[in-house]
Amino acid sequence: MDQNSKDTGDSQLEENQKVILGIWDNSKKFLNDLLDIREDSDRNETIESVRKDISFQGHNAWILIFSIFVASLGLNVGSTAVVIGAMLISPLMGPIVGMGLGVAINDDRMLRRSLINLGVMVSLSLLAATLYFTLTPISEFTPELEARTAPNVLDVLVAIFGGLALIVAKTKKGTISNAIAGVAIATALMPPLCTAGYGISEGNLAYFSGAMYLFSINTVFIGLSTYVVCKLLKFPMVKYANQKKRKRISAIATIVGIIVLAPSIYLFYQLYRVQVEKSAINEFMDEYVQYEGVRSTSEYDPKTKKLDVVLFGAPVPDLIIQQWKKKLESYPALSQVTSQFYQGSSAPNLDGNYENIASMQEERIGDIKRLQDQGLQITALQMELAAIKSENRRFESISEEAHLLYPELKTISYAPNVSKSFNNNTMDTVDVFTVTYNDSLMKPLERLTVNSRLKNWLKYRIKSDSVMVQTAQATASGI
Question: InterPro entries from the entry (predicted)?
């Protein structure tokens, strides 16, 4: 019995293992069919296609020039749609993909042609962009241009994934539009080239060098993406009749690859680290640097790891600032960052934050104006309240005097009555006094007499002829 149970259990276990292995094999086959591009890649055709696209002559040169003009126009007016339109027609990818492929297959001739044509491409682009920004009447430094004066990790990621998308598209058998695949490349290359042209036209070395630095980084990573894909797909190496030449070319390609790869990895890490630090600083500023009546702006220098924070408005106590500094130190990404808070006239000259400071000053002026308006409203309400209190005190005095003169009075109330005459279109205010008497059996004639005497006294007392005295039961006397 026990033996049969054991055999049944082993049999069930084997069946479960077979089911699991079947699921695993099917999953592997599905993923392989879904993601494997080796069988559907035409390596020889890809090499010939890349070789044809390297040269910048004739039509390609003019298309590049016109696309640079369009992209410069888009950056100049801050229109993303126009820049994207320029990317659709830009032939930038040829020499850069050629460099990556040339290194991957040890083709020194392709590598030389790619480098030469890359120089031609950069020269034509800079010339066209400089010409546009020199002639255009709009010389404003837009946010679109400013964003291309310094590299960040997002630009590098665009270059990497754009390069991967392009080379994978080019290796596929059949046809995939180069214009569509090249949009990702143009995204990383065209705006920096146009911005560099803007820097030349304005004579601003910082703009030019920053934009060219960004362009160079993106170029390297696009070429690197091409190199990696071609190696993974095992593109055929160029064969040389001379064995020594083959080894020499292979060694040169390896050295070039290492020279490009090592700094690229380090640079990517540095950009990533700076991006993480800036994100942490933005979170810190939004979450902790908050104080009633205070606005702030900051500038961070990644090289010195120093954060300068300028506070505008009401003075912030030192105890609060010390608490902010402790919160800053609690961020793992900002453990090596030193901070300095400035208030009022102690604020330094923070380059690059003029617009933020000007904006905050405008907001501060607006706040002051609103506070002034609120102050005027409060003053007016206080004056109105004081007038009401004064009127109440005057009525209290008058009512006491009236009671002394007319002991038969039980209550007296007062309210101004505003009326308008449509015959002569005039406004008039009547001081209406309503009275009641202790003696409810007082005859109407007596009430009229007392009301008349009270009315005459009130006219004299409040220095007004527009007085009405009436009893609570019925109107007894008019003006």
Answer: DUF389
